[in-house]
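Run log, item B.
One chain of 157 residues. Sequence copied directly from the ordering sheet:
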Amino acid sequence: MEFSLENLYSVEKDVDSVFGAVFGVNWTEVNKTTVTKFDKATLTNLVLSAVSVLGKSKEVLRSAATSVEQLRKEQIENQKTLLKLQEDLLKSKSDQVVEVQKTVKDEIRSFSDAVKKGCPEAGMTKTLVKAAVKTAVKAAVTEDDRTKNRGRISLLR
């Protein structure tokens, strides 16, 4: 008998019917006094009914234990998969950060080289250099934002 709520309730009904039919009470109310009132034939029928109910109960419990074990194994596998996905996501984000850092560094270097070539050193003031670097950083950040947005859009598709 496989575990299911239907089978569990069926076994429960069997227990209640055996005790209700024989003793006229709930199984929790059976005691030595109520059992000693019956003759041998009635007690024999009670024992046979109880053995049948116990057998069904054992089958349902064994099946339930198997089902619980299978669910436990599935949960462990699901947790392993979740951890792997989280690790992959962290690695991807880390790779993105490294790539952004490299892009910013390259852009600043190339912009700095362009400023050096395009402006005479003697006429270049500190303010102009700061403004040029600030513009280069903004351009790199804007490009990075565009790249991120393209990545997000592709993930949504």
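Observations after the first pass:
- DSSP finds four helices and no strands in the chain.
- The radius of gyration is 39 Å.
Flagged for discussion on Thursday.
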